[in-house]
Design brief:
The chain has 192 residues and is mostly beta strands. The chain is built from one helix and twelve strands, in the order αββββββββββββ. 8% of the residues lie in helices and 30% in strands.
Length: 192
């Protein structure tokens, strides 16, 4: 056996005897919620150049306790099915039981006062004119809602109080809130 062959065999034996770099996988970051405990309640669409309002989506915490949204995935799927924008809540955002939280198309480090979390770093396209929006925690669907168009002023709001994940599946439970910027972080008006 030549010198090169002996070195290769020695290295092979050394590598086989040394313990490998083995560690447990990093834990998945997921909100501690089950289906229906977070409810999609309102959408503000087109950005307003007059007042700088950014598009946003509002969620309601229907669970009995405080929920940290860290790790929540929000999928904005095109109505045509041609693609999606998926965002992940990348920091702690706590929402108390019975409270609302607003996630918007803004830079998280420079949030306007009506937003609790900005997802501009994840959202790669312009705001979708029509979409199905899905909330997921560790791959499990928590809620889903859809809109086919959004008003130029105001918001598209779920008019059921308290908000309910089954009620937001019914298109008749949604209507346009004509308040100039909608009602972020507040209960919506009942639909006519």
């Amino acid at each position: 056996m030549g010198y090169d062959s002996a070195v290769r065999v020695g290295l092979f034996l050394l590598m086989a005897l040394l313990p490998g770099c083995v560690r447990d996988p990093a834990p998945a970051l997921c909100p501690d919620v089950v289906k229906g405990e977070l409810v999609i309640t309102e959408f503000r669409g087109k950005p307003s150049p007059d007042d700088g309002t950014k598009p946003w989506v509002e969620l309601y915490n229907a669970s009995p306790g405080t929920v940290d949204l860290y790790g929540l995935r929000v999928r904005f799927r095109k109505a045509t099915g041609a693609g999606e924008n998926a965002i992940i809540v990348r920091r702690s955002v706590e929402v108390g039981a019975g409270e609302y939280v607003v996630l918007g198309l803004s830079v998280d480090e420079n949030l306007p006062p009506y937003l609790d979390y900005g997802f501009a770093s994840d959202y790669r396209e312009s705001w979708l004119a029509s979409s199905t929006v899905q909330l997921e925690a560790c791959g499990v669907e928590i809620d889903r809602a859809a809109y086919t168009s959004l008003p130029n002023s105001g918001s598209y709001a779920l008019g059921v109080n308290p908000p309910d994940a089954e009620a937001n599946d019914n298109a008749a439970a949604w209507c346009n809130d004509l308040a100039p910027n909608g009602s972020p972080r507040a209960a919506n008006r009942a639909c006519p």
